[in-house]
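Q: Could you fold this chain for me?
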Amino acid sequence: MVAPIHFIDIEEKRNAKSFKWLNVRKPELIELFIKSVDFVDKAMHQENNILNRIAQQPINKLKQKELAQYFTPPDVALYTSIQLLNNYEDGHSVYDPSIGKGSLLIASASVLAIEYNLRDKKLINALKGSEICSDTYTIALKNIYSAIKQWTNNISEKEALKILKTNIVNKDFFDSNIPKNSLIIANPPYKEIRGTGNIWLRFAEKIINDRNTKAFGLIVPVSISCAARTKDLRNDITKKFGEIVAFHHETRPRPLFKNVEQRITILHATKTKTKNKYLTTGFLTHRAKDRFSIWESKYIELDYAECNEVFPKLSTENMSFFKNNLTANNRLSDFIDINKEHYLWVRTTGRYKLQAQMKEPDEITCKWKKVFLNKKGAKILMEIFENGKALEWWKIYGDGRDMSLNRFLQGFGVDEWMKLNNCTETHTKQNAIQGGEWQKMEKNQLQMLF
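A: Sure. Below is the predicted structure, expressed as structure tokens.
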């Protein structure tokens, strides 16, 4: 197993070079990030033009709701920019396909100016993007210029705005071309559209599959890591990008975005010539005035085989569970014996919680499912519930919604077998009393499934 990678205490080891996140940055950038966390978490007023511009709120709330615009907190914007720009080289540009009021481009410009010393036309020409809403677009251009003018002293405001208008267009992203050598940064709108799915998925698909994308940093729902409908996206990412870094955040006790009850993944990926490397946090949480703790969280490194078509949400605490229980050698299908019937009763009891028992429940509701396994398989599943591993499984693979029993069983290799055997039922009182006939398969048919 690859040794875990830890965030280093920034205050104690400002000059440490063992992890390329914040510690190795220039002091001015470290200070800006620390202030950005206080700005968000402790509502501390900062006499800082950059943070004030990143945090600027939209005037038109109705338009914001219509376009599903959720504007990015300063610390999230800076973190996403810093991680993305690890890969900056001359000739690269930062492209935001939905600039909103310019938060992510302002954060990126700050990193380029402070860390890479870009100035004047070189800095402005590195910022590109698109915005569909004309009102928001106009505000964004002024906002971006106001934030970066401290680094553009050698060109006039008129010339600077002219370049910005050329590079950042008032246009639908899906009618725009991604520039060559783009490092893409985006917090796309989260809005479900009937017949086409959630719009953020369309953004991600275009970004990931465009040949001009050299790297990306996406702020998206956690379902990108594990949901069935994002499986093709994950496959595309692992085929086309060498290094993947995933940061996952829960909604309780405090969400990452104020007043936005959405579990968030900040996913970075870079095209490299090396083999796939995946760095991930667990499901992170923070309380009031403790937001900085999430930015110091531990990471674990996995290879592609360990990801198994899913981007797990792992921490050091649940790593051993992942290794020991989600491998081909431990799938419950190995223990199924159609000649020895055994039933296990399982039900959901709330978010992240399942209850399982071998004894038939005293009162059977529609939440109970009756699972057919042999005695050994049932015993193994019971042991998982007894030692809390069901909870850990959901934290690793769950898509952020309430516990789904079908998804749980599928994760242990039981689902397909039971579907074809008609071996799970959702019971009401009536049909539970009546019972049911369980269809059986021949052993050679069963073996073909696994």
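A (continued): The radius of gyration is 25 Å.
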